[in-house]
Automatic annotation (TrEMBL):
It comes from Psychromonas ingrahamii (strain DSM 17664 / CCUG 51855 / 37). The chain holds residues 165 to 431 of 732 of the full protein. Residues 50-186 form the AAA+ ATPase domain. Belongs to the AAA ATPase family. CDC48 subfamily. The lineage of its organism: Bacteria, Pseudomonadati, Pseudomonadota, Gammaproteobacteria, Alteromonadales. This is Cell division control protein 48 ATPase of AAA family CDC48 subfamily.
Length: 267
């Protein structure tokens, strides 16, 4: 498949503990994805087909991609990640062949998750599509989904911010027939996400996580991550003039003085 189809090994240390504010959604996703990937025999025994496709939708930056990666890691499935816009633009003229290759490769590898990010780019409503390529790619994706059988142990996860722009044929039974919304986090969700992203940080004594969660209404996971990173970066900028950069390493006593405060970012 080359470097573009981006098969990823699950070597990073991602776990369910790394995503916050999505407890109920995660429980459903685990039931729909982890169960069939880990225990396909349960579905055989019950005489039902395991889900083939799950659509995760919601605003940008709320953790759709993160959740797909975590599931792949936790289930130890092979993870194939493709981007909808890339399939259309980068592989123009070869888009369908590229999709076919990914499905074939996943079929050879055993339990696999194929993650299609921004699926709206390759599966818009066909009645509203002008381009021939888009029409052919949607048709190819439908055919590939229909061709998946439970023996192959492949689950396709698609993510989009715009679920209503998708071709309805894609959401029929046997295709992406399970849907999960990952919403903008509420206050408790924000608190969990802030705790995740400050886990390894030496926080200043006056940092009050509950207060930060209260005053970050509207922040999504990606915003909260950026907030924590920027707070840490600002500490670096502050202490930079006092560091002797000609030394091979920063002395321990100087490192021990580093504390991340957050208040300046939220006034
Ligand atoms: P897009 O629709 O733009 O692709 P997305 O919903 O897939 O966005 P991610 O790419 O998963 O969002 O999120 C970007 C980063 O923000 C993540 O790698 C993670 O660090 C952080 N993040 C987002 N949501 C959460 C969350 N619920 N818990 C913890 N971290 C989060």
């Amino acid at each position: 498949i080359g470097d573009e189809a981006e098969e990823e090994t699950s070597s990073s240390s991602l776990s369910y503990e790394d995503v916050g504010g999505v407890k109920p959604q995660l429980a459903r996703i685990r039931e729909m994805i982890e169960l069939p990937l880990r225990y396909p025999e349960l579905f055989d025994q019950l005489g039902i087909d395991a889900p083939k496709g799950v659509l995760i939708y919601g605003p940008p930056g709320c953790g759709k991609t993160l959740i797909a990666r975590i599931i792949a890691h936790e289930t130890e499935a092979n993870f194939f990640s493709v981007s909808g816009p890339e399939i259309i633009h980068k592989f123009y003229g070869e888009s369908e062949a590229h999709l076919r290759k990914i499905f074939e490769e996943a079929g050879r590898k055993g339990p696999s998750i194929i993650f299609i990010d921004e699926i709206d780019a390759i599966a818009p409503r066909r009645d509203q599509v002008v381009g021939e390529v888009e029409k052919r790619v949607v048709a190819q994706l439908l055919a590939l989904m229909d061709g998946l059988n439970s023996r192959q142990n492949i689950i396709v996860i698609a993510a989009t911010n715009l679920p209503n722009l998708l071709d309805p044929a894609l959401r029929r039974p046997g295709r992406f027939d399970r849907e999960i919304c990952i919403p903008i986090p509420d206050r408790d969700g924000r608190l969990q996400i802030l705790e995740i992203h400050t886990r390894g940080m030496p926080l200043a004594d006056d940092v009050k996580m509950n207060h930060l969660a209260d005053v970050t209404h509207g922040f999504v996971g990606a915003d909260l991550e950026a907030l924590c990173r920027e707070a840490a970066m600002s500490v670096l900028r502050e202490i930079l003039p006092s560091i002797n950069l000609s030394l091979a390493s920063i002395p321990c006593e100087q490192l021990a003085k580093l504390h991340v405060g957050m208040a300046d970012f939220l006034v």
